[in-house]
């Protein structure tokens, strides 16, 4: 499958242009404008369509490319699941690779493999997406196969049972068999109890195990609708592509009656109060203590969303972040890790810190609190803000050189960016001021937080406690032996 990426793509020039501008001088507004130019230029080449059934389409040509990427995103995720059916969105994602009316069994995977195609899917709280990359000459067949499985999946007791076992194995491997993960996940989800985001994407063992063909069929009818989907095509495609799309997807009918509304359909932003919550979990499989901190932030369409994004990057995300810089000299942490969760209706910023032997979890907490307090009081300097924007922009430019990522990005377009999927998000990022950074630091990060201590068995905790009181030179040498 990797041979697809050996084919040359003309978008390299966009990335080179952006990187050159970044290296020359990121601190000036006109340089950011020069960096952003490829986004505006490329956006002008996108074709937009909406079929009569509500299906949204975006086509971006790369004329010299010999491959094409297709991405389809449905507005269905775990937040739409009802009580007793947690994990259905993710389970159904698996089912769509296991047979449709005209491509039964493993025909889809076998066909894609024969074409050297690269395909996958993912499920999140708000969406499920499907994506593939394959030779351009196979595009008509690919569109027909995509339509067949989206519109006419073949659900049988055998395939349901098989995929239930696959999902339960995935649950065991990625969650239950990993130190701290299950208990930490449940602790954090409890903080969102009463919201559509109060259960995990993968669902519960009990609900997944009890899923039936009838329930999954109803799930498909309710959620897999053309008016809930966005399809993007990026790469080398021909003039016949639109007629192939019409043939494959044009007869797909939306529901005759609107689906019954769920709690997640209200589209009302969820803003949870940030208050101090402290918990701990002890896991005998834990190799070393760790600290997990979390803050409730805002949904993707909130006026503060972009400022929160930049602040998260400044605090925790990139190599130049405050938490990373604090570990360059005389570090008190061995490792830091952060993947903020940005959902449609709410957000969660998080940080995991693994301490050195001489540092306590209390001290690490104080260090992070002090960083946030300083920003809440003083904000950040203009040069740092410009650098944050340049970093964000550079990540967007990198996407231009990766058709599969670009297709997925286009299929995840928010309604407000319907005709500006590349530049709309950038313009909101570029409009963020230091005053906004300071305000969100105070509002969402400086008013309370969730702290969870991840603790190993007693003998490791005892050893670490002893090392905290020994001279630094001694603790450092013993730390290596213990770890």
Automatic annotation (TrEMBL):
Biological-process GO terms, alphabetical: proteolysis
Pfam families: Peptidase_M16, Peptidase_M16_C
The keyword Zinc is annotated on this UniProt entry: yes
Gene Ontology MF terms in the entry: metal ion binding; metallopeptidase activity
Entry's transmembrane regions: none
Record's keyword terms, sorted: Hydrolase, Metalloprotease, Protease, Zinc
Keyword Zinc among record annotations: yes
Peptidase M16 N-terminal domain mapped to chain residues: 63-198
InterPro entries the record matches: Metalloenz_LuxS/M16, Pept_M16_N, Peptidase_M16, Peptidase_M16_C
Chain ranges of the Peptidase M16 C-terminal domain: 211-390
Similarity comment text for this entry: Belongs to the peptidase M16 family.
PANTHER family named in the record: NARDILYSIN, PROTEIN YHJJ
The protein, known as: Peptidase M16 domain protein
């Amino acid at each position: 499958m990797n041979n697809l990426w050996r084919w040359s793509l003309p978008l390299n020039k966009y990335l080179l242009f952006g990187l050159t501008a970044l290296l020359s001088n990121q601190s000036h507004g006109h340089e950011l404008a020069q960096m952003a130019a490829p986004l505006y230029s490329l956006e002008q080449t996108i074709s937009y369509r909406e079929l009569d059934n509500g299906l949204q389409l975006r086509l971006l040509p790369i004329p010299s490319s010999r491959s094409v990427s297709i991405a389809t995103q449905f507005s269905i995720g775990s937040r739409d699941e009802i009580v007793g059916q947690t994990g259905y969105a993710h389970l159904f994602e698996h089912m769509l690779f296991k047979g449709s009316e005209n491509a039964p069994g493993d025909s889809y995977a076998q066909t894609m493999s024969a074409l050297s195609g690269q395909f996958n899917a993912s499920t999140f709280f708000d969406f499920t997406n499907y994506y593939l990359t394959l030779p351009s000459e196979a595009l008509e067949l690919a569109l027909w196969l995509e339509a067949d499985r989206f519109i006419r999946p073949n659900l049988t007791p055998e395939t349901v049972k098989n995929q239930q076992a696959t999902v339960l194995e995935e649950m065991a491997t990625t969650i239950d068999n990993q130190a701290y993960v299950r208990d930490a996940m449940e602790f954090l989800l409890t903080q969102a109890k009463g919201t559509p985001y109060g259960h995990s994407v993968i669902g519960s063992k009990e609900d997944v195990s009890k899923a039936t063909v009838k329930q999954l069929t109803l799930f498909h009818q309710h959620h897999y609708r053309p008016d809930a989907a966005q399809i993007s095509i990026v790469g080398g495609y021909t003039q016949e592509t639109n007629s192939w799309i019409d043939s494959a997807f044009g007869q797909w009918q939306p529901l005759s009656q609107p689906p019954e509304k769920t709690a997640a359909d209200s589209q009302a932003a969820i803003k949870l109060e940030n208050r101090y919550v402290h918990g701990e979990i002890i896991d005998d499989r834990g190799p070393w203590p760790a600290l997990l901190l979390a803050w409730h932030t805002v949904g993707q369409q909130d006026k503060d969303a972009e400022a929160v994004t930049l602040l998260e990057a400044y605090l925790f995300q990139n190599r130049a972040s405050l938490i990373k810089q604090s570990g360059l000299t005389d570090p008190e942490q061995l490792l830091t890790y952060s993947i903020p969760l940005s959902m449609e209706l709410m957000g969660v910023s998080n940080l995991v810190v693994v301490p050195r032997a001489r540092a306590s979890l209390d001290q690490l907490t104080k260090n992070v609190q002090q960083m946030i307090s300083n920003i809440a009081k003083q904000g950040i300097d203009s040069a740092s803000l410009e650098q944050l924007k340049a970093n964000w922009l550079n990540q967007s430019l990198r996407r231009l050189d990766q058709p599969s990522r670009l297709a997925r990005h286009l299929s995840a377009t928010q309604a407000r960016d319907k005709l500006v999927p590349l530049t709309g998000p950038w313009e909101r990022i570029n409009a963020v001021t230091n005053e906004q950074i300071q305000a969100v630091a105070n509002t969402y990060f400086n008013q309370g937080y969730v702290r969870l201590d991840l603790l190993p068995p007693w003998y490791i905790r005892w050893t670490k406690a002893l090392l905290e009181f020994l001279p630094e030179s001694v603790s450092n040498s013993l730390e290596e032996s213990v770890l």
